[in-house]
Amino acid sequence: MDQPKALEPGTTSRAKLSNTLSEQGFALGNPAFIRLFKTEKRLELWLARNGQRFACFRHYPIRAFSGHLGPKLAEGDLQAPEGFYRVGIKQLNPRSRHHLAFNLGFPNVYDQALERTGSALMVHGGCTSRGCYAMTDVLIEEIYVIVEAALLAGQEAVDVQALPFVLTDGALTHASTSPWFAFWTNLKQGFDLFEQTRTPPVVGACNGYYRFGSGLDAAGGDEIGYWR
What we know:
Family: Belongs to the YkuD family.
CATH architecture of the domain at 14-165: Beta Barrel
Pfam family, one: YkuD
InterPro entries: LD_TPept_cat_dom, Transpep_catalytic_dom
Organism: Devosia rhodophyticola
Pathway: Cell wall biogenesis; peptidoglycan biosynthesis
Largest sheet: 5 strands, mixed
Distance between the termini: 35 Å
Number of helices: 6
CATH superfamily of the domain at 14-165: L,D-transpeptidase catalytic domain-like
């Protein structure tokens, strides 16, 4: 996968970006989907062509995230969140002190049910983190422009999967002694659904677990929301 070309902060060219997208069969305004992997320090940006399944546009290196593997539990623990989040238009911050940012929407209904607390958990520019995912000013510009265009074109919200690592069977087995093994096993259900369908699953929470698609309906859980 080609890495993004360097862009000077404040000079992202929509025309050049549109051309780059077009070369891969995408366009500004296509629906977007994001995966974040802590161990691999990677953000993946996926786009859907004309209502088709999502395909990966680019990988971006995560410059920094704070904390360690595992979910965010409480305000001030400096943990970057793990879980399933949705980003609506009101979560975009073009005037962030970190150049550009979008709020992940932590705590979601799953986090709230477990009484997890925290605020202002972002994907943003810059090179430092206090519970966020820092992408550098250069890279956040391209990511932000694509996410903003998708939302302005009518996508209700951009789904974000924030994960400890690529959740293959082998990687999860290797982590079987972690206190977060059960939590990560639950996350793997959503990871696998996207791997199988290349469509972000409907995600909600019920009884302390993430539920997906028809499983969410059967459990009567609450769907993960976004700012309205």
